[in-house]
Amino acid sequence: MKKVNMYALSTCPWCRKTKKFFTDHNVPFSYIDYDLADEGTQAKISAELDAAGATGFPFVTIGDETISGYQPERYSRALGI
Amino acid sequence: MNTESRKKALRYFFEKVVTPMGFKFTPDADLVDFLLEQEVILETKHGIPFCPCQPLRHDRARDMKIVCPCIPFHREHFDLIKRCWCGLFVHQDVTDPDSLPQLSPHEVGLE
Amino acid sequence: MNKKFVQAIRADEVAPGGMRAVELEGREIVVCNWSGKYFAIQRRCGHMNAPLDMGTLDGKFVTCAMHCAQFDVTTGEALSGPVSEDFGGESPPPKITEYLEHIVMQMKHVRMESISTYDTKAEAGWVLVAL
Predict the structure, then answer these.
(1) Is A23's Cβ below 8 Å from some Cβ in B?
(2) Which of A78, B94, C4, C66 is the most exposed place for a label (fewest CB within 10 A)?
């Protein structure tokens, strides 16, 4: 299965839905809550979002693909489930 | 300070701002309540009700663009997806907010 | 102690959406008009005592001009704290930096308090406030 990572905010309900999506589908994933991270990590994430043209969270990476926003259909397609 | 009172006050102020722009609070009342609660938390922490779903860049010029309601700074994008990023506001004709996907600017042909 | 109503201001001197400061028996009070209903609050902001009549009244919410603290004029409840003078990462001009740091440091110790309100009634073209 492709590696899944996401950047989230502890205040964002769509991020919670995204985490739930992966949990419900038994997809292992790692995540970082941007607002709870240290400055250095935030700067890194901020740059990644800018590079991908993403303006908000959730920001999900499945393999090589980046998906901005809560988009369960795209997650399913990317994961082949 | 009382969270419920502050949420009601934010509702009052925001309604006046978003209505002339063609938006309204999403009909999803639970989502409104949750997001406003997060905004009160953010306001208590930072002094300003920022969007609960966008990153603070610690750069004043950028951060001012995610002060709720941030519609004016993302007008083209939000008009195309008929909602704001966090979904607190939707176009006035929207009755089924769950049908509006959270699409980023380049997914709708912007930037 | 029994409260007595005293004449504060003529009703037509405070238009809807407006605020006027009056001094009654040594107390500074602001009379507010929310869509034709009158409310009276203490003049001093619950944050740093700035005069609230110099702020703005929007519906039943008054916003203080000094640091944007907000109160509900019907209950006096403090709704939000002041907005800090933090420059959000930008550097202010060097000459005022020290001064501002000193002010910000002091402001961090200032508590928000809810403000007092006074009962009102309209009678014969006058607004009366109970003291």
Answers:
(1) no
(2) C4
Domain range for A42: 4-79
CA distance C81 to A44: 32
Tell me what pLDDT residue C91 has.
63
Enumerate neighbours of B (3 or more CB pairs within 8 A). A, C
**Blockwise average pLDDT, block size 10, chain A, 81 residues:** 95 98 97 97 97 95 96 96 90
User: Average pLDDT for residues C98-123, to the nearest whole number?
Assistant: 79
- Substitution target from B53, B66, B99, B111 for chain A, most A beta carbons within 10 A: B53
Q: What predicted TM-score, i.e. pTM, was given to this entire model?
A: 0.85
What residues in B contact A46, CB-CB < 8 Å?
A: 55, 57
Structural domain count, chain A: 1
Is the confidence metric ipTM above 0.90 for this complex? yes
Whether residues B105 and A71 touch (CB distance < 8 A) is answered with no
Identify residues of B whose CB sits under 8 angstroms from chain C CBs. 1-2, 5-6, 9, 12-13, 16, 43-44, 47-48, 58-60, 63
Query: Residue A57 maps to which CATH number?
Result: 3.40.30.10
Q: Can you tell me the distance from the alpha carbon of A56 to that of C21, in angstroms, rounded to the nearest whole number?
A: 45
The CATH number of whichever domain residue B26 belongs to comes to 3.90.460.10
What is the average pLDDT score of chain C? 87
The residue assigned the tokens 């603290």 is: C69
- Report the gap between the CA of C131 and the closest CA in chain B (Å): 26
Domain of residue B102, residue span: 3-108
The class of domain C5-83+112-130 in CATH terms is mainly beta
The total number of structural domains in chain B stands at 1
Provide the pLDDT for residue C1: 64
